[in-house]
Structures are given as C-alpha cells and as structure tokens.
Write a structure and sequence with these properties.
This protein is mainly α and 124 residues long. It is built from three helices and two strands.
C-alpha cells in the first residue's frame, strides 16, 4: 500500500521532469531555427554584394538592439558582447585555507579546493 503511494509520487515527478525537458527542447529548437534563418539572411546579403550594417532592422531585431534616439547601435552591440563575454568567464573564489583559486560553478554551493581539499560554501 505504502509502496504504491511512493511509486505514484515518483511517476508524477518523472512526468513533470519529462514535460519540462520537452519545453526546453522545443525552445532550443526554435532558437536554432532562428539562428539558421539569420545565417541564411546574412549569407544572402553577402552573395548579393549588400553591406551588413547594424542599421538593418532584421539584424537589429535578431541582436535585440533597440532603436532609440541618441543611442549608438555599435555601442549597444559592444555592451551586449561584453555581457556575453562576462557571463562566459569563469568565476573564481579564493580558498580560505590555502589561498588557491577555486572555480565557483553556478548552482554548486559546496566546491572543494583541488589543492588542499577544503570545502568552500559559496552562494553563486
């Protein structure tokens, strides 16, 4: 009797995880499709000998660059690139025991120093 309850709960958790994964896969497929369309668009412009500029509304929309008065599109693109680059940089924290740099992984709150074995507690 008790086993049936736990089996039911397990099945419900699994079906929720499968549903979440299906949504994530669908979103990833849409992103890849959008990226493919942009690559084809850019190659088409290059083949036709047309210049690619940030003034092109299709490129602006794809890069999520807002067109506002007094805003420089090149500056906005550099800001976007800076955010992407900063997000890809590894975060390091200092081990309080030996002083070594320890990689601070996202959603991992108990990193272990590879040099001395000290367990760090982080919030990132």
């Amino acid at each position: 009797m008790m086993w049936d309850y736990f089996r039911y709960r397990w099945d419900m958790m699994q079906s929720a995880d499968i549903g979440d994964n299906k949504v994530a896969v669908k979103r990833a497929q849409e992103d890849v499709h959008e990226l493919e369309r942009m690559v084809v668009y850019m190659l088409g412009k290059l083949v036709l000998g047309e210049k690619l500029t940030l003034a092109d509304p299709v490129i602006r929309d794809f890069l999520h660059i807002e067109q506002a008065e007094g805003r420089d599109p090149e500056h906005e693109l550099l800001e976007t690139l800076g955010k992407i680059r900063h997000g890809a940089d590894p975060r390091l924290t200092k081990c309080p025991k030996c002083g070594a740099a320890v990689r601070d992984l996202p959603d991992v709150h108990d990193e272990v120093c590879q040099w001395c074995g000290f367990q760090l507690h982080t919030t990132y």
